[in-house]
Amino acid sequence: MIRQHTIHATLGLALVLSAGCDSGKKEGMTVGTKSVKGCDLSLDTLSGSEWNYLDVTPSGDQPNPVLGRLKFHTEGGKLMAKYNARSTSGMYDYGCVLRGKEVHCKEKAMPQDWCRALLTGGGSCDLATLTEIDPDLDPAEAAKGVSAGTAEFNEAKKKLKGKAWKDFKLGNNNLGNKLQGRIYVKVNKRKCQLSVSDFYMTIYNGRSIEDSNPNGTNAFVKNELGELLWENCDGKQSRNFVARPEMGFPKNPAKVGHLARYKVGQQAQFTYLGQDGQTPPEGCSFSFDIWEDGRPLAKGLKPGTAKARHKGRTIPVAAWMWDKKFDKASGPLGEVIAMVRYKECGGTKETLGAACVAVKAE
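Request: output the structure for the sequence above.
Response:
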């Protein structure tokens, strides 16, 4: 579904599920498809709340944190949101503002990228155009974006020829080029749920356009599943996180590749092989947590020690390892295992990063 950027005013009528309000005595809250009496949910009290996508299945409506999980918090006096947008490994940050009966949230502006896309598609890049795309854009940031984006486009146009120039144009002028995530949140007080419309902004043929993400407009219910993962899986770290059927730390980590598919009954060892976080500073310690599909599996684990070959010599390394036996077949999409690593010094715990890898048992 595609919308022109200029029709934001019609969101409440055309794209967001309607909300009703039941008055009456407060008798508790039950999320789901039934009507709820005494719901005290409001857009003013979202900070600190967590929500899950309400998945409609043949066996009934079920909260599904893999398809969508959403968390609101306050940072520097500003309402913020963390949202995975149906990503199995990504977690994206949005800044939010209250606009009438909706909360509008969007990712940080990228004026340089926007300018490059505008010019590639035959449009104009100036302060007025960038401000129209995002009225909250800081003028100083917009000015830097105009300058840097224009210079980048002119340089590419001058130097790139043939296929390289065609690839540049395709990369910067296509409907799948997601340049800013945007969600529009409304309260459905009758069911005590949120109605979330999930979009992204792109620039095509010199014009700003909004297109729907796979979640579209859907109900979200308050999280009652317990602790959820809100870390974004780092791409570089994830490339160093592998699953293998062999147990034990590999002798030559540089030659180890990830194996995604397993048979029921097999065991897999998940190992982080990155060079970062190998030796804790004096007086500090390492630990890690394991998550599956956004939910905790094991917490407070300690890495062991091992020896590995590196540049022709044997060195001691931290053995960030965890193993799992596949007792049953995975679902159609498989499962995503995340390792979140920590360093603790003097009682202060710091996240070293999160890595994700997908596996499937059949």
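Confidence is low (pLDDT under 50) at residues 1-33.
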